[in-house]
Amino acid sequence: MPFGRIKVKEARYLKEFRNTDPDELTTYDLAVLILEEPIGAQLGTLGLPNNLENTKNLDVTVTGYSAVNKDIKQMYTDTKTILQDTNDFLFYQVDTLRGASGSAVYDSTNRVVGVHTNGSEAEQMNYAVKLNEKALSFIYSVIRGHSIDGWKLIGGTWYYYKNSTKQTGWQKINDTWYYLDASGKMLTDWQKVNGKWYYLENSGSMATGWKYIRGRWYYLDNKNGDMKTGWIKVGGNWYYLNSSGAMVTGSQTIDGKVYNFASSGEWI
């Protein structure tokens, strides 16, 4: 598919449709695939015009990738007239080399009216499941139950989606700051961003204030979260943080002068 390889987490089926020709044993189905990872916002509409009950003689465009010849990489796009509308199926005559099941069938207003299913090479007769009221109700019920926005755990890594799009950089979510790298991955531990160091908890949230990390105390700006160095005044007391941000204790020579610090870090 044009988005590359995407893992399907779950498939939901409406019902099994059977060809109206009694001599044909092939069955067709409508399914909604729930992907492990959203593919981004896709603009468009889905459904039938309110005043359109039967689509016979309607010109529609069938799109997709050929299914018979695997060497053909070009998508086919062909506009033909619907020959028959059974309310469950649409029939049209178009050469799609059988075509890829799941391709969109849409009208001149770019409204999707069906889902291409299969065809006959000999007669070049192709079929689509019609998006009638029953099918649309099923699709919407699945979509409502599976929001693609918010936090998603994919392959052991957390990503955050907004408006169906993977977010990157600093994100404020429920009054908490997180940092997502260029691929959208939620980062943890020490991270250097735009020349400043930040500490991100195991949950991904940005730490602020005093933080004890691997045997050392650090101070992270209460507002911006960036790691501080040098002299800082907190709660009326002075502290000194070395070049790596760690709080010092005991006797220290700073800029040629000797200073004494309590075990809790205060300058005494």
UniProtKB/TrEMBL annotation:
Pfam family, one: Trypsin_2
GO biological process terms, semicolon-separated: proteolysis
Start and stop residues of the Cell wall-binding repeats: 167-186, 187-206, 228-247
EC number of this enzyme: 3.4.21.-
Family annotation (InterPro entries): Cell_wall/Cho-bd_repeat, Glutamyl_endopeptidase, Peptidase_S1_PA, Peptidase_S1_PA_chymotrypsin, Peptidase_S1B
The entry's keywords: Hydrolase, Protease, Repeat, Serine protease, Signal
PROSITE patterns associated with the record: CW (PS51170)
GO MF annotations, alphabetized: serine-type peptidase activity
UniProt entry tagged with the keyword Hydrolase: yes
UniProt similarity note: Belongs to the peptidase S1B family.
Protein name: Serine protease
